[in-house]
Amino acid sequence: MNKVKKFDIAQILRNNAVTITFVILCIVCLMFSGLQVSYLVFELFTRISRNAFIVLALIIPIIAGMGINFAITIGAMGAQIAILWVLEWGVPGFKGFLLAAALTIPIAGIFGWLVGLLLNKMKGQEMIGSMIMGYFANGLYQLLFLFIFGNIIPLSNPNLVIRGSTGVANTLDLSRKDGIKHALENLGQIKPDLAVYILAAIMILIAAYMYLYKKDKTKKPFALAGIAVLMVAVSFTPIFKNWFSMVKIPVATYVLIGLLCLFNYVIMKTRLGQQFRAVGQSGTVANAAGINVNRVRLIAIIISTILAGIGQLMFVQNMGSFQTYGAHEQVGLYAGAAILVGGASIAGATNGQALLGCVLFHTLFIVAPAAGKNLLGDAAIGEYFRVFISYGVIAMALVMHAWRTVKKKKSLASNLADASAKA
User: Fold this and answer.
1) Spatial contact of 40 and 366, defined as CB atoms under 8 Å apart
2) What sections of 235-377 are H helices per DSSP?
3) CB burial class (10 A; 0-12, 13-18, 19+) of residue 22?
């Protein structure tokens, strides 16, 4: 057998082609955009706080072998139903956000259960199945908001209905006194340097725990502590203060994002997480090992749909308003494209890939219109380009997955033929 090189440049490039392409595009567009780095960093932190939670919600179904769960769109619909009731009852601020989250969990959970049951009937076609289910559910959503709410189910708040007609208004404003705009952001914001100090302190405590209690005598605890010290040192530099001069960190939002990362990490260490991995690697082998494959897949979709609903709540409270009939439609597409940009595939994903994808995807979204305007005299070119990229990334990921699958099968067949020839 040929020995696999530890650092195979060609293999690294093939495995990370999408990510590398995006890094190059971001750099080129930034050079021609004329935007200040401080503005780019400010916009990035704002957009990541809106979208990272939803992107992270895709990880568990991917690990469970179900590909990208485009049915997170249905979870977003559940969140918007919850928001409508919170506005109708007039519960403002953080209390309203908590109430919306409490309503979203059972609504999105039921939706996820129904989606999971259907996806268990179409094994191998989960991605296209979840996408079509999103379109079907959108029709029911339109019926609910155009006819049932405000007609069969009356709404007493006049700001929620279409004037002179029936149904929910086209735009729901969350910035009114009874709204939930910035319900999380209003809990407190800190400067970037203070955020660095807090994060560095946490990293040093983790390193100390690893060294003293876990008896980890490797380089990991020292490397973690070294990175923490380096972060603090960088926070004193003029370039850091310049780049982050416009940024304020919404503590509650990023704490929730961090908790979801921790949840994804911890659940994979549990028995259920191992079942997710086993089912994702081979449903047949998992079933032979006594794992209830359908149950595990169902749990993965339910968790993902609920998390997507919470993510949509975080998104709309940050925006301060949302289009009633369209805010949910592109959630699955953009979240799927973002996680693929970070280096994930439809067969595996990590927290790091999801967060990196958010950074790269939104960087391109920020700089592409300005670059298009400066290069071609029309900002719309950049808008068209980024929409094209959204679909193109997903298409490229699917093609690469199919290519790797075929290559793996050929390699396996070749090894079997060699083994039988030697026998």
Assistant:
1) yes
2) 238-243, 251-267, 271-281, 283-288, 293-319, 331-341, 351-376
3) buried
9-183+251-422 fold: ABC transporter involved in vitamin B12 uptake, BtuC (1.10.3470)
Distance CA(344)–CA(337), nearest Å, equals 10
Instruction: Give the chain's radius of gyration (CA, Å).
Output: 23
Amino acid at the residue 145: F
3 state SS of 349 = coil
The residue behind tokens 């100390």 is: 208
Nearest C-alpha neighbor of 306 from the set 61, 105, 68? 105
Residue type, 398: L
Locate the domains of the chain by residue range: 9-183+251-422, 192-246
Paired residues of 249 in beta bridges: 190
**Residue-level pLDDT, tens digit, the chain, 423 residues:** 344 455 567 777 777 777 888 888 888 888 888 889 899 999 999 999 999 999 999 999 999 989 888 899 999 999 999 999 999 998 999 999 999 999 999 999 999 999 999 999 988 888 888 989 999 999 999 999 998 998 888 888 888 888 877 789 998 999 888 889 999 988 889 999 999 999 999 999 988 888 888 777 778 888 888 999 999 999 999 999 999 989 999 999 999 999 999 999 999 999 999 999 999 888 888 888 889 999 999 999 999 999 999 999 999 999 988 889 988 888 888 888 888 888 887 778 899 999 998 998 888 888 888 887 887 777 677 667 667 766 676 677 667 766 766 776 677 666 666 666 666
DSSP string, 294-321: HHHHHHHHHHHHHHHHHHHHHHHHHHSE
Look up residue 172 and give its DSSP letter: E
* Cβ neighbours for 355, distance < 8 A, ≥ 6 positions apart: 48, 52, 55, 56, 261, 342
